[in-house]
User: Which sequence fits this backbone?
């Protein structure tokens, strides 16, 4: 039976591409939304949403437009849109994103750089400047 996606804020989490109990080491490149529920170490490059599931254990360098974390993550993550830590997330990392969302109960230890210039480069309008 195919895995059903989970509901999230009116949207759905993508189906798992690496199920719980599975291990992957090396470079993981994704061209579509992807979900990790197993163990990954190395590097993950995604061109769409990357979801790190509740049972996941990820020790990697990640680059994606949007990253949602439910499980354990250690390493570095860069998102051009946003990074969201859900209630069960346990993160020890360096994060670089224009928007960081932390749910109550999530754990984050590390550094985070939120740079509005990063968001401007994704195509959104620059902030209006006020004249004195």
Assistant:
């Amino acid at each position: 039976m195919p895995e059903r996606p989970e509901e999230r804020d009116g949207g759905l989490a993508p189906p798992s591409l690496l199920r719980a109990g599975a291990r992957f080491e090396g470079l993981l490149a994704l061209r579509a939304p992807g979900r990790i529920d197993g163990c990954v170490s190395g590097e993950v490059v995604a061109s769409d949403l990357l979801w790190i599931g509740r049972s996941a254990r990820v020790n990697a360098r990640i680059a994606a437009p949007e990253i949602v974390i439910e499980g354990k993550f250690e390493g570095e993550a860069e998102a051009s849109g946003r990074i969201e830590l859900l209630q069960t997330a346990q993160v020890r990392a360096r994060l670089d994103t224009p928007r960081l969302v932390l749910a109550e109960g999530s754990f984050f230890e590390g550094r985070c750089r939120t740079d509005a210039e990063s968001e401007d480069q994704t195509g959104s309008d620059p902030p209006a400047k006020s004249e004195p």
